[in-house]
Design a protein that fits this description.
The protein has 4 helices and 8 strands. It is an alpha/beta fold. It folds into 2 domains: 158 residues, Rossmann fold (3-Layer(aba) Sandwich); 50 residues, no CATH class. The strands form 2 sheets. The protein has a 6-stranded mixed sheet with strand order 1-8-7-4-2-3, with helices on both faces. The protein has a two-stranded antiparallel ribbon with strand order 5-6. Helix 1 packs across helix 4. It is rod-shaped and about 120 Å long. It starts with 20 loop residues before the first strand and ends with a helix.
Length: 226
């Protein structure tokens, strides 16, 4: 049995931010990882589902062979294998044997806030300027008097216009994903990321792309060392 020298679950990986927080096993032999089985991501939020499909898309783009959720769950159902909760080594080993996968991608939506709108009152200060005139009288050369109007300054009037204004608060999504070896049930890679966007799907897509990209970079660095 391979020994995984790092305890990945002990890391505090969750939190807001645009940089993925990931840990990869330094001792695991990733060269034997040919096929990845993708499990359905758990989520206590009914408004966001199917996140695992986004990971499948980017893993395939990165060159990995993927057994996607629907196929995996159908086969497990046919063999009466339950994958809810903790995955024991026996269960993961059965999954690996039946589907011919080497690792399982398991994930969870850890936080989710949908896009929402609000209304706030916006005050606009206005200033109006008006000239001020005065009537004066001047004496003419013939001794008579004539009235005339003269600008003696400017009068300023201040007012405040208050009107409602609508604003949008972006959706926020947090996801944690991990790769589990089917032989030992050991976690060989784990990562998490939170993001916000105009839609929850866009945020989840960015997270999936970022985590898969981070994993491929870590994997490439690990292979360079060996």
């Amino acid at each position: 049995m391979r020994k995984i020298l790092i305890s990945l679950l002990a890391f505090a990986l969750l939190g807001m931010g645009c940089t993925p927080k990931t840990v990869i096993s330094q001792s695991y032999d990733f060269s034997q990882m040919n096929r990845i089985g993708i499990m359905g991501f758990s989520s206590p939020y009914s408004g966001l589902s199917g996140v695992e499909n986004l990971f499948a898309k980017y893993l395939i783009e990165s060159g990995f062979k993927v057994v996607e959720r629907a196929q995996l769950e159908q086969v497990l159902k046919e063999h009466n294998i339950s994958v809810s909760g903790y995955l024991s080594p026996e269960t993961t080993r059965k999954i690996g044997q039946i589907l011919g996968v080497d690792v399982l991608l398991i994930g969870e939506v850890t936080s989710y806030t949908p896009t929402r709108t609000g209304v706030t009152m916006v005050a606009t200060r206005r200033t109006e300027a008006q000239p001020v005139y005065a009537q004066n009288v001047m004496k003419l050369p013939d001794g008579s008097y004539a009235a005339y109007t003269q600008n003696v300054g400017t009068q300023y009037t201040h007012s405040t216009d208050v009107r409602p204004s609508q604003y949008t608060i972006n959706a926020q999504v947090g996801i944690i994903a991990k790769l589990v070896d089917v032989e030992t049930a050991e976690i060989v890679w784990i990562g998490s990321l939170s993001d916000e966007s105009s839609s929850a799907l866009d945020a989840a897509d960015y997270i999936a792309r970022s985590l898969v990209k981070s994993f491929t970079k870590e994997l490439a660095k690990l292979q360079e060392k060996k």
